[in-house]
Amino acid sequence: MKKISILLLSFTMLLGTTACESELDLIPQGAPSSGNFWKTPADAKAGVNAIYALYSDDNMYGRGFFWLNNASDDIGTKPRQNAERIKNFIVDGSESDTKDIWRLHYEVMKRCNDVLRNIPNIPLEEKTKKMMLGEAYFNHAVMHLELAYHYGDDRAGIPIQDRNDPTNVYVPRAKNVAENYAYIAADLVKAADLLPYFSELTADNYGRAHKTAAWAYLVRTYLYAKDWDNAIKYANMVVNSGKHALLPNFEDVFKIKNNWSSEYIWSVTSSADNTSLGSIFPGVCLEDKGWGAYNGWGNFYPTKELFDAYDPADKRRSATILQKGDSFMYFGQLVTFNEGKYVVSSSNRTGYQFKKYMEPFGYAKTTSGGIDIRYVNANGDKPSTALNVPLLRYADVILMLAEAKLKKGQSADTEINLIRNRAGLTSISGATLTDLKRERRCELAGEWTDRHFDLVRWGDAEATYAKPLHHYNGTVIYPARNFNPAIHHVWPIPPDEIAVSKGALSQNKGW
């Protein structure tokens, strides 16, 4: 990872010298690359690594779409105007916290298309060329999928960039999101054919795309497309590959030493050598101001509704959520949550905190009293850590397989019980969709799997959001909300993107 980290910094500087940033800001589908680039193997390497550079952007996997997941019943957010607007579905797409998500995703897709268009013409060893092309297909598909289900539906999809002509930037929306899903699936199939298994990568290339990650994203794509047969097919390919397994202890999944464990499929990668890279999400979830020891941002907290969803015997609850009276390690000291010096701040709406991402903050400070930068970035204004933040892990694949099988009327007991047994819960028989929904919620709480859109695609959002949300002491922190499934199943496209599209983009109906 040290080598990749250094390369990413150089690519960021490279992009600043080879493209007009103001033009990129204005054109939603991206601007053409410099004609002086894409000549040598070094150019190819730089271009591919540039794809990954934006993953660490605060508005990507630092916060980004998680602001929109704030709509879910699992999340309480410290008082912020935009967070309140999101929670109550009264956004217009111009909110400062979320308006850049669309642009950043399309910029990554543009970089992927630059690779796909130019690398075939560069003299490269065939194995290297296949890997680079596979990485581009994969990352394009991940970005494309995230935008597709957030903004597209059966009335209109999202624009599909012109892969062959980068000057054709004013691309209209796809006829419907099914067109997007088909395009995404085709890219992922190509990626899987080109990419090696993760086990075939050398350590300095960990964090790059690999075969089972492509298959896993095919599962997610087909789940959103409601193509249960293909979701089952590709989930079984991941399972039968023998490359992945659940760790015996759920809590261990979220430890730095297990960044690349058998449960790893795809994450925002971090580096113990340079924690200024990677996702700031662990620091974003840390208690606001970090009790004076570190600049936690305190943006997202678990609700009582999420806490109560767990069986008291479920080991995942204490590994996922800190409640009043819980002990935890904080910069080398065993402390008690929400008691004494560690009482939560007034900006904590729920009285809980996510524990999943706390391990990096458990290590002692240096002898001089500074932050140990092997684990946490010393700059609290960029609170990244050495912990990978998972975007899709093996347990998710198991649960998606279970969901697809249940939708087909098949038994999913094996899959459901794999997840339950690891959590210390007894096996069940005749598992239903209700069981699946509970396991998915408890397993993936506070992760980037997007609880809000689980509720949307299950058709449960309207009824769920009609109920208030609570502080741990039972007081209401959010009253019942009005979710209109004819409008709020997608989010509004940022008006700035519509304004510069020369009529190519239209807003989602009702927003």
From TrEMBL:
A Pfam entry, by short name: SusD-like_3
Range of residues in the leader sequence: 1-19
Keyword vocabulary terms for this entry: Cell outer membrane, Membrane, Signal
Subcellular location: Cell outer membrane
Residues covered by the SusD-like N-terminal domain: 91-223
Domain of life: Bacteria
Membrane-spanning segments: none
Domain RagB/SusD: residue ranges: 263-511
Record-linked InterPro entries: SusD-like_N (IPR033985), SusD_RagB_dom (IPR012944), TPR-like_helical_dom_sf (IPR011990)
Family classification: Belongs to the SusD family.
Protein name: RagB/SusD family nutrient uptake outer membrane protein
Source organism of this protein record: Flavobacterium cupriresistens
